[in-house]
Amino acid sequence: MVNEKLLKDIEFIVELDKMKSILRQTSLIGKEQREDDAQHSWHISVMAMILAEYSNEEIDLCKVIKMLLTHDLVELYAGDTFCYDKSANEDKREREVAAAEKICNMISDDKGREIRELWDEFEEMKTPEAIFAASMDRLQPMLNNYYNNGGTWRKYNVAQSDIYKRISPVKKSSDELWNFVENMLDDALQKGLIPKK
Amino acid sequence: MVNEKLLKDIEFIVELDKMKSILRQTSLIGKEQREDDAQHSWHISVMAMILAEYSNEEIDLCKVIKMLLTHDLVELYAGDTFCYDKSANEDKREREVAAAEKICNMISDDKGREIRELWDEFEEMKTPEAIFAASMDRLQPMLNNYYNNGGTWRKYNVAQSDIYKRISPVKKSSDELWNFVENMLDDALQKGLIPKK
Q1: Predicted ipTM of the assembly
Q2: Residue range(s) defining the domain that contains residue A62
């Protein structure tokens, strides 16, 4: 007999496979293929390992990585909401909270609680860890857009002010990364990768 | 001016995007689509978070996760080698060591060193962390095969003894997980998902 708790955990692990089929708007660099949630979550977790040294404040890198690995699990049931789609973002919070509750009931209490706490902290974006994690989550698709000739910025004619608002956590988390972002966005503007309005 | 070290790190992060296009033999559950290295690395990292409690020995979960996030980076330059392809495995080590050296030269010294050390520890499979990490790396494709009606076991007519050899790190890392694996493989045999030879 296999213990019930472990079987429940395995069932959840099998469910996680669906993250590989939840598509985001961002495309892979140099390709038409859209990125999925599993790929994105992996990329930003490794980014955190590489870029942690540039954080202004001391951060618990392990917590940042756990946050990034799990922050998009709500999309299993709430789907991906494009960050620049204002109407879809109106009920995003409500849909995601319901999904978070569902997920946390799917695995054993202590682990469901940990994932929920990580997600709540990420969403509130108040701790240095959550701000750094948000910076990774936002910088990665911008890199992909920059290297994809404007990507979703051009495809959806995103306003410059919305891009700066979206990337603003980087300004709070790291002076060095912010300097890089400003340079990249200036260059993107000059090259016409960001619509001028 | 953005500092040179950060620019080198960003260049590496952009290179990481290619992991999303390195295909493994395993398919996503219920789909024809083959899994890629980024998806796989994400899945096993979250699995480690969920299953760490079943480890026989105390493990440093943060190290396990970092190991799992980066263990397949060598495939950026060495490609994916199917675990049951004996001839391709003959020069795997040589190809991967060359790739590891290339990767570690691509990012700043200290971080290249950390990634190399994590990879060496994973490959040597001696520490409790490396054995647990290997267990995640091997359990996940077995789950996908089990839920995919035999998947690559049937497609490539893999010998039962090779499957047991491949999954053997689980036996060393966790009595509870090993109990689960034995049950799953017994069931797979009974259902004809593993070729009887």
Answers
A1: 0.96
A2: 4-190
